[in-house]
C-alpha cells in the first residue's frame, strides 16, 4: 500500500464533493426487444458476425431492466450517494422520433423514483451510444437532421423527468462514438472513413450545444454537463518529431470535441486535416456549437505514449501500445498509470471557460474470480485508491474538480470486448445474474462512510 493510499479519507475532499458510480443503458439493461423498445445500432452491430469478441451480445446483459431495484439497493448498500446512468433513446422513442413508448417512459420513472426513495441522486446521461437504428438508416450521426432528432428526444426526457432529475449529462464521450463508430468501424454502426467521421463530429458538437440549451430552458434549476474521454499523452522520446506527434494526438483525442463547445473552435492549427470539418458548417454554427456548461465531465482510464509515424495517414503519429512498453496492464491492455488523472485534471483546469470538473468515469478491468463465494480484487482496489489520491492532489493544488464517479457498478457488456473485461465493484455471474460485492466495492463503501464512522460489515 502506498503512503498516499494509506492516509486517504473522504473528509479530505470536503462536503460539496460528489461521490458516485456510473453505468450505461446498453451495457446493463438487456431486454432489448421488451415492452416496445425499438432496435438500437448496438443491437444491429452485435448481431453482425465477427464484430464482438466470441459473438457475445447484450440481449440480457445484467438484466438491469428487471433487476434495477436490487441494483439501486446495492448502490445504497455501498453508501454511494450519486448514481449516473443513461437513458436508452430507442426504449423511449422506438423510431427515434415521433410516438413515445409508454412502457419505456415508465421504466425510467420507476428507476428514478427508486433512486430518490433510497436517498440516491440520479445523474442522467441522455446519450451513451445506443442510437435508434431507424435513425442510422437515415444516416445517423452523419445526417445534420440529427440535431433536430436529438432536440426532440432531449425535450421529451427533460419534460418527463426534469421534475425529479436535476443533474444532466448531454453526451457520453463523443470522441469515442464518432471515432470508433464512424471512422474506425470498431463500434456501432461500424462505419469508416474521414467523411463519415467529420460529419459525425460536427453534428455531435452541435447536439452538445443544443442539448445544453434545451435542458437549461426546460429544467432551469438543473446542473448541466457533458462528458469527454481523455488520456494523458506523453511523447515516446524527447526528439522534436515525437513531441510534435504527441501534440497532434492530443489535439485529436483530447481537444477536438471540447474546444468548439468552449468557444475555441476546432484545433485546426495543430491538425490541419481537420479543416475538412468546415465543409459541414452552416452559417451561425460557431455560436451554436458553444454552450456554457455548469460542469465538464472528464473520463480517464490511462495514459498514451505517442511517437512520430510517417505511415499513419493524416496525423503522422501513432500510439505505442502499452503491451510493448513493459508496464503494468489491465485486462483491456491499458497501462496502469494513476498519475494520468492528475495530469488530465491539470490540463483541463487550464481552460478558464470550464467552471467545474467532475470525473464522471474512472476504473479498471482485471481478471476477477470467485473463490469460496468471495471476489478479492486487490488490483482494482489499489487502482481506485491511487486514482482518488491523484484527484485529491490536484484538488489540494486548487483544481476545480468536485466529483468522482467510478466506472462501474456491476460487471457488464464491454462493447466490442463482450463480457470478458470485468470493470464492476460488484461481480456478476451471468448464468444466474447473482451479484457479489468485490473487495473493491467493500473498500469504496467504507471509504464513503467518512473518517470516524464504523463500516457496516458487508
Ligand atoms: C465508456 C464506457 C466503457 C468504459 C470502459 C468509457 O469509454 O463510457 O461505456 O465501458 O469506458 O471501456
List keywords for this structure.
single chain; 458 residues; alpha/beta; TIM Barrel; eight-stranded parallel β-barrel; 16 helices; 15 strands; 16% strand; globular; binds beta-D-glucopyranose
Number of helical elements: 16
Lateral strand order in the biggest sheet: 1-2-3-4-5-7-10-13
User: Going by CATH, what is the homologous superfamily?
Assistant: Glycosidases
The domain tally reads 1
- Supply the helix-strand structural class: alpha/beta
Number of E-type strands: 15
Rg over C-alpha atoms, rounded to the nearest angstrom: 21 Å
- Main β-sheet: number of strands, strand sense, barrel status? 8 strands, parallel, barrel
CATH class: Alpha Beta
Bound compounds? beta-D-glucopyranose
GO biological process, one term: cellulose catabolic process
Keywords: Carbohydrate metabolism, Cellulose degradation, Glycosidase, Hydrolase, Polysaccharide degradation
Binding site for substrate: 27, 128, 172, 301, 407, 414-415
Pfam family, one: Glyco_hydro_1
Describe the structure.
The chain is an alpha/beta fold and 458 residues long. The chain has a single domain (3-449), classed as Alpha-Beta Barrel (TIM Barrel), CATH 3.20.20. The chain is 37% helix and 16% strand. The strands form four sheets. An eight-stranded parallel barrel has the order 1-2-3-4-5-7-10-13, surrounded by five helices. Strands 6-8-9 form a three-stranded mixed beta sheet. A two-stranded antiparallel ribbon has the order 11-12. A hairpin with an 8-residue loop joins strand 8 (303-308) and strand 9 (317-319). Helix 8 packs parallel to helix 10 and helix 14 (339-349) runs parallel beside helix 15 (378-396). The protein is globular. The model is unreliable at 1-5 (pLDDT under 50). The chain binds beta-D-glucopyranose. Beta-D-glucopyranose binds next to loops. One of its GO terms (cellular component) is cytosol.
Amino acid at each position: 500500500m502506498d503512503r498516499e493510499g494509506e492516509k486517504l479519507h473522504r473528509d479530505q475532499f470536503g462536503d460539496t464533493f460528489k461521490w458516485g458510480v456510473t453505468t450505461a443503458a446498453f451495457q446493463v439493461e438487456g431486454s432489448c426487444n421488451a415492452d416496445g423498445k425499438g432496435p438500437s445500432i448496438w443491437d444491429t452491430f452485435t448481431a453482425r458476425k465477427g464484430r464482438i469478441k466470441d459473438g457475445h451480445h447484450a440481449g440480457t446483459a445484467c438484466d438491469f431492466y428487471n433487476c434495477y431495484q436490487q441494483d439501486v439497493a446495492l448502490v445504497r448498500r455501498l453508501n454511494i450517494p450519486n448514481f449516473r446512468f443513461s437513458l436508452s433513446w430507442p426504449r423511449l422513442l422506438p423510431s427515434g422520433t415521433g410516438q413515445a413508448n409508454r412502457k419505456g417512459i415508465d421504466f425510467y420513472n420507476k428507476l428514478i423514483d427508486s433512486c430518490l426513495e433510497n436517498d440516491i441522486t440520479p445523474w442522467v446521461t441522455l446519450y451513451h451510444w445506443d442510437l435508434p437504428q431507424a435513425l442510422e438508416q437515415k444516416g445517423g450521426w452523419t445526417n445534420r437532421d440529427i440535431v433536430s432528432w436529438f432536440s426532440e428526444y432531449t425535450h421529451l426526457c427533460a419534460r418527463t423527468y426534469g421534475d425529479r432529475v436535476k443533474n444532466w449529462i448531454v453526451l457520453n464521450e463523443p470522441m469515442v462514438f464518432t471515432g470508433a463508430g464512424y471512422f474506425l468501424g470498431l463500434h456501432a454502426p461500424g462505419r469508416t472513413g474521414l467523411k463519415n467521421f467529420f460529419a459525425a463530429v460536427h453534428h455531435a458538437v452541435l447536439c452538445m450545444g443544443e442539448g445544453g440549451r434545451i435542458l437549461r430552458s426546460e429544467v432551469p434549476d438543473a446542473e448541466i454537463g457533458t462528458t469527454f474521454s481523455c488520456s494523458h499523452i506523453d511523447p515516446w522520446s524527447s526528439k522534436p518529431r515525437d513531441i510534435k506527434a504527441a501534440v497532434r494526438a492530443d489535439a485529436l483525442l483530447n481537444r477536438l470535441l471540447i474546444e468548439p463547445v468552449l468557444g475555441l473552435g476546432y484545433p485546426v492549427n495543430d491538425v490541419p486535416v481537420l479543416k475538412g470539418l468546415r465543409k459541414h458548417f452552416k452559417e451561425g454554427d460557431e455560436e451554436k456549437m458553444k454552450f456554457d456548461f455548469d460542469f465538464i465531465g472528464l473520463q480517464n482510464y490511462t495514459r498514451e505514449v505517442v511517437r512520430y509515424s510517417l505511415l499513419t495517414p493524416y496525423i503522422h503519429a501513432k500510439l505505442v501500445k502499452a503491451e510493448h512498453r513493459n508496464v503494468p496492464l489491465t485486462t483491456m491492455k491499458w497501462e496502469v498509470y494513476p498519475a494520468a488523472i492528475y495530469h488530465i485534471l491539470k490540463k483541463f483546469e487550464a481552460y478558464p471557460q470550464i467552471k467545474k470538473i467532475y470525473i464522471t468515469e474512472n476504473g479498471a478491468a482485471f481478471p476477477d474470480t470467485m473463490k469460496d463465494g468471495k471476489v478479492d480484487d486487490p488490483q482494482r482496489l489499489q487502482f481506485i485508491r491511487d486514482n482518488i489520491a491523484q484527484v485529491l492532489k490536484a484538488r489540494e493544488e486548487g483544481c476545480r474538480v468536485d466529483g468522482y464517479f467510478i466506472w462501474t457498478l456491476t460487471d457488464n457488456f464491454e462493447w466490442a470486448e463482450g463480457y470478458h473485461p470485468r470493470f464492476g465493484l460488484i461481480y456478476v455471474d451471468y448464468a444466474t445474474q447473482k451479484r457479489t460485492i468485490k473487495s473493491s466495492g467493500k473498500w469504496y463503501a467504507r471509504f464513503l462512510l467518512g473518517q470516524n464512522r464504523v463500516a457496516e460489515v458487508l
